[in-house]
Structures are given as structure tokens and as C-alpha cells.
Amino acid sequence: xxxxxxxxxxxxxxxxxxxxxxxxxxxxxxxxxxxxxxxxxxxxxxxxxxxxxxxxxxxxxxxxxxxxxxxxxxxxxxxxxxxxxxxxxxxxxxxxxxxxxxxxxxxxxxxxxxxxxxxxxxxxxxxxxxxxxxxxxxxxxxxxxxxxxxxxxxxxxxxxxxxxxxxxxxxxxxxxxxxxxxxxxxxxxxxxxxxxxxxxxxxxxxxxxxxxxxxxxxxxxxxxxxxxxxxxxxxxxxxxxxxxxxxxxxxxxxxxxxxxxxxxxxxxxxxxxxxxxxxxxxxxxxxx
Length: 288
Prior knowledge:
Elements (H helix, E strand, L loop, with lengths): L12 H10 L12 H12 L15 H11 L2 H15 L4 H7 L8 H28 L6 H28 L5 H27 L4 H20 L3 H4 L1 H15 L5 H12 L1 H6 L15
Helix pairs in contact: 1-6, 2-4, 4-6, 7-8, 7-11, 8-9, 9-11, 9-12, 11-12
């Protein structure tokens, strides 16, 4: 089962100190919520099963589960959950409030303003990410959907790209086009690692990161068209890598990609059809 992802870039130690103070999280509690009330609130506000095992990896108290849940959420959901808990905190009045003060500390104005500032910052971050989302993948996916694509496909892409680059290097091809293609694969590996770190660390994606990956994917296709021997070594893996990169960037794989990779599989006929002269097109065999 997938583990909760800690988004350290969104909430720092100082933020958490304020949040835990406002929510009376000392002793493992979250305000004066009973277990079933806590679980119901989390499910209603952010659609999370607070009883899922991975939220109890640090312990099964409400406070420990809440920390893991909060760190696993995107900024818009973090803001929504924190706001809902503040509303709950403020919901009791009159005699009930006097009785409740024995369980929930009084909240000073300074701490309240600091807590509300955290919520506002998360809302602004969510709005910024939403703007990036609409600019980067032309509305086909929401930001949340794109983040899930990155999380699910990037580890596979990293492993496949690294394996493919190693395979090509092991054959010791000495032509510059293949060398450029391997360099491109290594750059993609670095870019994807940075993208995954950004998503896991802060739940954020940037236009620049996505555009850079797509630009390198296009470069890789160009090298394949020019005769880079990547697909000679592992045609299926090459096709898979370019497919995965297309899915990550949200750019549809086109016929150029297919013709470039299948050129190495089918031989001279396909290569001639795209007007490229390579060792394969001239009937020479690739050598190690």
C-alpha cells in the first residue's frame, strides 16, 4: 500500500509548532475530538481514510495520524482541513465553551493570526499551482491528476532511462549522435529526479520543469531520427521510455516518435521514408 508522502516544503517546523498549539495536539489529541469524530471530519473535509495503516506508522494517536495526513495533502486540501479544524474550535459558545475550556486552551489573537496566515499561504500556493496546471497541460488534467501521474510514472521512467543509457554505453558506440542521445537520457534522468523531488517535497509542479522534460524528449526523438543507436540496443525499451515521457509531460506521442523508434526495428525502409541516412539505412550492421 502506498505510503503517505511528507511535503516538507509546504509546512515547516515553525508552521507545525503553531498548528499543534492551535489544535491542542499535546498528549496525542487533536482538540477534543473523539476518534470517530476525528475520522469523520478528515473523511468529510479531504476524503481521506484516517484509519489507513500508513497514517499510523508513527503511532496510532490522533495527533500522530493527523501529522502524516496533513503532510500527505496538496496545499489546497491542507488549507481546507486547517480551516475546518479552526471552525470546529470556534464552534462552541456559552456554557458549553466554559466547560470545553478545560480540554481546549484559549487561543490568543497572535497565535490565531499566525495560524490563519499559514492557511492563507497554502491557499495562495494552491492558486499558483492551479495557474501552472492550466498553462502546462492545457486543461487535460487537473493539477492533482498531473501530480498523481508524476508520482506513479516517474520512478518507472527513472529506472527505464537509467537501464537504457547503461545498455547503450555498454556497447561502446563511437558515433557522436549516439553519444548525444545518451547524454540526453542522462539529462532526462536528472530532470525527472528533480521533478519527483519537487512534487514529493512541496506538491508543486512548474511550467519550466515540465517544458524542460518535453524539450529533452523532443531532442531524444531527433537523435533517433538522425540514427542514434539507442533503439538498436533495446527498441521496446526505447519506445516505452518515449511513451512514458509523453504521459509525464501531457504531450501526446505522435507519429514521428513511432517512425523514429520503429526505424531501428524494421530497418532501411522506414529510415528512407523519413529521409535520414544512417548506418542502418546503408545496410551496415551496428557493432559494439
